[in-house]
Amino acid sequence: MENKFPKNVRQIGNVSDTPKIYVEDYVDTFLNQICDKADKEQAGAFLVGKKEVTEGQECLYIFGAICMEFSGDENEIISQENFEKAEQEKKEYFEDGTMIGWMLCRPGVRMVIDTKIFNTHEKYFSERNTIFILKDNAEVEEQYYCYKYKELMQIGGHYVYYEKNAAMQSYMITARKKIGVTPSEVVEDKAAKDFRNLVKERFEAQEQKKTSRLTYVASVFLVIVVLIMGVTTLNNYGKMKSVQSSLEFIRNSIMKQGEEKTQKTSGTVKEANEQQNENTVQSEQTNDPQTEEQQDPMPQQGEGSDSASTEEEKVDDSSMSTMQEMSEDIYIVEKGDTLAKISKKVYGDSGHVDAICRMNGLSDGNLIFIGQKLILP
Prior knowledge:
This is LysM peptidoglycan-binding domain-containing protein. Residues 258-323 are annotated as: Disordered. It holds the Pfam family LysM. This protein is an alpha/beta fold. The protein has a domain at 9-188: Cytidine Deaminase, domain 2. Helix content is 55%, strand content 19%. It is built from 11 helices and 11 strands. The chain has a 9-stranded mixed beta sheet with strand order 1-9-2-4-3-5-6-7-8. A two-stranded antiparallel ribbon has the order 10-11.
């Protein structure tokens, strides 16, 4: 699996050299604490980390630091005994790392690489791309150097990165007596807090962006759903209006035909009643007054009843014929019917489909439903 650069970093200086140097935040804090407590005396630390090629670039990752004890000899900075002791501490706290450099803080001394520093580095860190850090706490300055081409060459900048670093935290708590700081100063200082707050804010901003994107996508999806529902509703509304218009047309046609049949029937009954009255008047005029008293009125009542019943039968026959004609002009749609099938049933062919559509105000010949009443042309 290819190595990747740390995600949460802050840049110090101009990072344009090779290799790229990444210092873990707890290590950077610990080195600053050593310098702050050094006062007028020099202080130092061994750097623990690893060398890797990340995305095609040479990189140094410094994730540990061990307090340095100086030699009593004025001609050397580090003794062999002190170096071996630091190696043992490295194995105890940072077993996955290697010694890849060192840091020296000299208050009030010029920030230059002298012979003693160069000889010390070549003795203990002669491998290519090892690191030396020179600090001056009085002037709050620091310089990073990389050993390559048999020289300590200054590096323009580096990165400070943040990751969970339990090993360094554990060592800082153990070493607090050596550097003379309290546990709270060891675990957290102001710079570390500020950086962690910055990382936290960055995480929150990223989460907020993700939430905003999800909200935007959900809103767009909701708008699309509403538009689809609106279009569907409009289409259904148009179909409903078409069906409603057809039913209204059918109802008006049936009522109109019923009124016409009723008028014809009532006219027939009226003429029959007038004829009956004329016959009655004529019979009364031709009868003699003397014989009128001797006549039995029952036959007249019987004749009147027969006449009335005859007229009622005529009305009933007329109403039945009207209903029959109406039923013959109306077709009720059954299951599986189409206009073509209805045309074949009624007329014997499918050539009357257009006529049925026009008669019933149908814009779509397939838009019929079971129980619908169609007027037949």
